[in-house]
Amino acid sequence: MESTHPTPVAKTGSGIFDGASPKLTFLFGFIAGVALTGIIGLAIVLPKVYSSSKTSTAAAATNTTNTAAAAATFSNVKAVTSADLMRGDKNAKLTLVEFSDLECPYCKTFHATMKQMLTDYAGKVNWVYRNFPLSFHANGQKEAEAQLCVGKLGGQTKEWDFIDKIYERTTSNGTGFALTALGPLAKEVGVDQTKFQSCLDSNEMAQTVKDQEADGTTGGVTGTPTTLIVDQNGKTLDGIPGAYPIDQAKAYIDKALAAL
Known about the structure:
By secondary structure, the protein is an alpha+beta fold. It has helices spanning 22-71, 105-120, 140-154, 156-169, 182-188, 193-201, 206-218, 246-259, and strands spanning 85-88, 94-100, 125-131, 226-231, 236-240. The longest helix has 50 residues, at 22-71.
């Protein structure tokens, strides 16, 4: 009968330490322990080193961006005339000449900021809108032409209404507002759709859009939105180089007003 707890039997084998001296066994154990400690240490330290590297890289990129923005220089653009699309008091001390793209997601965000600044600085600033459609936004050029067609046929109030509604409805990034929806939108803001479509299809406003874009380039605009701060003499005092939050954008306005 098998026992429930059988008597242990000594093993015999050919392990590497069989017959080895205690001194050799101790030496091998010491080396193995050091190696294991090193591996554990690397496992702890390497992620921290990698994380630090990523943080430093991100910080460097941020600093580069901030430096580039701070170093941006802007020049004078074409004088503001009655032909420009303007909101606010025409006799204001400062004109904010925004170069924008109806398919730019940052412009969509900044549009609300510009409205807020016009309210907060009522009588002190006005807002001029000029087109700067980016080449990689497929619908940007035609939407800009459409805006100008609405202005031609219906005046500035309807033109601003058209712009506001596109920014409200587009998902941006190039094709966020369908070109086939431009005609119905023109009708919605009170413009004859047939006349609008004729204007748009004839490319009548294409050169005007290109002229506005060229004007922006002359003024130092390289992306959208860019807003030049212009005094009553037509001199560009500064520029807001991007879709800055309201408080940061106001800092540019306050600085310009203080310098007058």
